[in-house]
Queue: 3 jobs
Job 1
Amino acid sequence: MLSSLSDVGQALVTNLDISRSVYDVGWPTASAIAFGTNVGLAVIPIALVVNIILLVTRLTKTLNMDVWNYWHFAFIGSMVAVATDSLVYGLIATALAAALALFLADWTAFAVQSFYDLPDISIPHLATAPGVPFAILVNWIFEKVPWLRKMKADPKAIRKKWGIFGEPVILGLFIGLILGILGYAFNIPEGQTILETISLILGVGMNLAAVMLILPRMVAILMEGMIPVSEAARDFLKNEHQDVRYTLA
């Protein structure tokens, strides 16, 4: 998917004469940057120590096992370190970010467990939990507007209304075809045939359709592998802390 979309993105820039001075590099690059800094070298022990201290003092009920996403804490700490020219301030910011994630996880745990029917789960993820206050406000506004309150736009309702056109695979196909047309159809390079252009467009469509089908299954497999580890950690900690939750965020 990354290689296919990178090619399409480059084609959009070239063929549509798009020029921008700021680029969204996405989380893979951001995480690599975060872990590659001086703050990133220390983020894992810092986050674990903060978590253990808050568990022992019963200030949190969440055990954050989402080690990969500690890069959020490292990124925040790295920005502080650069802005203040102080590694110490960066490490302090990292610790505060790790603590904030745990508090947000505790605050949102009941809603997560109820909505997704996932007992003992909380989500200490700084890409999601900080948006909860905004979501609460937006939800309150939606509840005050009758036609919005009655609207059903969840995946099940969309599939029921639109049939096959509401399936993720078909949506991925259409999105891919649109991107492919925008990227390849309006400025065909010299020597490239119409059939080759059509092939490129169809390739992007099929690629995104396949990703929409495969990605959820890949995540499900990953979750299956993580569950035994998480349950073992939860059982171990519950011997000392009966109210500890665990996370698979």
Job 2
Amino acid sequence: MRRITTASLALTLAATGALTGAAATLAQDGSDLKIGLVTDVGTINDRNFNQFSWQGTQAGAEAIGAPEPQYTISQASADIAPNIQAFVDQAYDIIVTVGNAASDDTLAAAEANPDIWFVGVDQAPPDGVENYIGLQWREQEAGYLAGVVAESVSETGHVAAVGGTYVIPAVVNYIEGYANGAKSVNPDATVVVAYVSEAADSTAFADPAGGTTFTQQLLAQDPDIDVVFQVAGLTGNGVLQAACDAGIWAIGVDVDQYVSAPETAQCTITSAEKKLENSVNSAIVSIANGTPSVGKNVLGIDTQDVGLAPFHEFEDLISDETRAAIAAAEAGLADGSLQACEQDETTGYCVQTLP
């Protein structure tokens, strides 16, 4: 796997428990649980974590017959704690918080309010907090499937991945899985990996124009690249745009970006997806059913919480051979006979397994 960093581009652009993948049937006609959601920094309709976590919250409330849930928007990280406290003060029963940045505030609130349930999206609570469900994902599994697709549709054998930064395990894990999936199709594949920033900053995740420029430079260095996978948030939307502008294929991340980023739908053949709506829905239903899995829940193919988004208009691009390879990989990942990467249990990072 060939790696390109910002320096080499000469460019600076400044587990334990598991929830079921399908919500269980609630053994009651309705619920009076009050449910609230605190967003990550941004908007409720961000077409990403906030929006799909909110949709999962709504679905969970509907599934258990609870009143319509409410949300509060965090304009800045400093808003998260008071937004959580506002729901606490209003005697909410379940509070969903979105994003890793909310981890410390959610933990503090959970420890201070043992009678309230907390669901943390992209969070890993410590052991011993019995009212806090953390949802994380094996991103490498979705990345692996994306790599199978990428190398299968590539005409040159050169595929790429652009990550926001390598300091976040989820980003690296998506990309390591992608590389391994591509190599499973073609051991001689060239997988080019580039990270936009050395920090988890706005350059890495909130700069679409910068993502476009970065990817254009990447493609200029290797004109044979004909598929690009983005793992860079809003910066990655610029990656998708650069791929479309270059007339090559793109693969989205986290949500179905054919739907969430319609401006680049014409070249986004699929996305490596976290099933956010399903995961949050299931967590809420498990609380109502009295079967919550507290602590860190690492969700994957086996729980139907990661996978590929639909191919939409590109169904004909995916051959029967590729579909068979995807199905075999899904089965292997689900039963444990296939590992998308070798993962360091201490750091959570996939380790590089390719030459």
Job 3
Amino acid sequence: MIITDPRRLVLAVILMLALSDSALAYGSSVEDLVGAFSIEKTIKLGSSSSCFGSPCQVNSDPLGQPFINPMADNQAPSIAGFDLEPGVLSQNSRSINFTLHALDDQSGIGDSTAYFRSPSGALAKVLFMPQNRTSGTLKDGVYASRLILPSDAERGAWRLENLTITDGEGNPRILQREDMMRLGQPSEFLVA
């Protein structure tokens, strides 16, 4: 016998559960239950076995809430500190050491870059890679990098254009020079 009416199918399932011995294994209550009670059970009926082995959202309710993964990493990382040393480069030394302390709550810090512009607009990039972490973890770590300018590098103030911190999922946090100054972080170095 094949049951095609959904109401009869639900009643048949409820009767089967009520009559099975395994239902009694869950215990019973001797308390008087007074009031109105309801039980809701969703039974998937489908023509494809793929809907039963993994989540099948083909026939999802268009008026229902969209599926939101509570563990999805959709938040950009943040900065806990940024430093550069020395702040003034002499003719003898054209090397600057940079330190970035970055935080991310889920996937951890990915590649990050600080962009500096010379007085005439030349671009210098400082890369902070996961393998350059000097302490901490991917989620709360300190990263080091070094910028070596050529001996004929343009003199004057090289200003931070932006610092882009990216997490492992690709979520970027872009801090402009003004943002860094507001946070009290260094935003330029001088080539003498």
